[in-house]
Amino acid sequence: MNKVLSLAYFAGGSKFTLDPFIALKNSRHDLKVIFTKSLKRSGRGKKKAHNLLLDKAVELGIPVNTVDDFRNIENLKLLKSLQLDFIVVFSFGLILPKEVLEIPRYGCINIHASLLPKWRGASPVQHALMNNDKVTGYTFIIMNERLDEGKIVYKEKINIDIADNYTILLSKIISSASKVLVSKIEDLSNNSIKPQAQIHSEASYCYKIKKDDTYLKFNTSAEEVYGRIRAFSPNPGAKCFLDGELIKILDAKIEGNSKFNKKIGCVTDESLLISCKYGFIRLIKVQRAGRKAMMVKEFLNGRKVKIGSVINEKK
User: Fold this and answer.
1) Which residue stretches of 149-264 are H helix?
2) Please, which residues have CB within 8 angstroms of residue 104's CB and are 6 or more apart in sequence?
3) Fold of 6-206
4) Which of 87, 98, 99, 122 would suit a FRET pair with 286, their CA atoms being 20 to 30 Å apart?
5) 200-223: per-residue pLDDT in tens?
6) Alpha helices in the chain (DSSP H)
7) How far is CA 47 from CA 44, 91, 103, 200, 217, in A?
8) Fold match flag (6-206 vs 211-312)
9) pLDDT tens, 51-74?
10) Which whole-number Å values give the CA distances from 8 to 60, 95, 308, in the listed order?
């Protein structure tokens, strides 16, 4: 196929949105515009969040628009004027109305970080880790007005290693997806791929992660606790209270057998081995509020923890 495709890319501003952007930018096709979410002020200082995609687009001379929604008629006029073949969407965080979905000739292609129809929704990588899945992947779909229900263009499996956390796993997923992104939209445009409907009866759903989800409960198995630690590492971090002090747990490992423990959430040795309802978790890397992340050995040099101390999800 010799046709040059006219493209737009809609994505948030995290570092993970850069790989698809670079793949589209470095292709022989015409990346006409980037749409990203408007910068929000957050935190105590109400500083604007950093948008790496916006910075990179400006650096490379690609037109970029920031939006909160698509009620602005000028944005719709712009998109229609570009005579787009595809809009590629990844981690955008905004719902695309029907008026936008119908603009590109071949459709809006969403990169979803799971093997659809499993884990439809906002947090598929976290839920794969929380669920201790052994395999995940990514799916390219032609978007429709329903949540992650579009026809499947392509999907690929990726193994989840025991040491994978959120950042590592999403990096693996989006790196792999970006390598085939251009070839798959080319195949779709020349009818080499026939999109397949999802089997909706096999769907599972994941919700948007809330702050309360990140607080660890030890009245469950060590495997479940470890899955949550991985899912929230390094940000926002799995949290708990140790002798009343808020601690983030950034890395850990399962240790010992899966025996039932009568005492739950207790420090059982001098190196922060924690009892769960079934089994034990060994803390490896932690972070105190307002401090840098540190290995447990360094943490214990500056803070003594007694055997028998209780770790709680709430202060």
Assistant:
1) 166-189, 222-231
2) 8, 84, 85, 86, 87
3) Rossmann fold (3.40.50)
4) 122
5) 999 999 999 999 999 999 999 999
6) 18-25, 52-60, 73-81, 98-101, 124-130, 166-189, 222-231, 296-302
7) 8, 22, 35, 42, 32
8) no
9) 999 999 999 999 999 998 888 899
10) 15, 16, 57
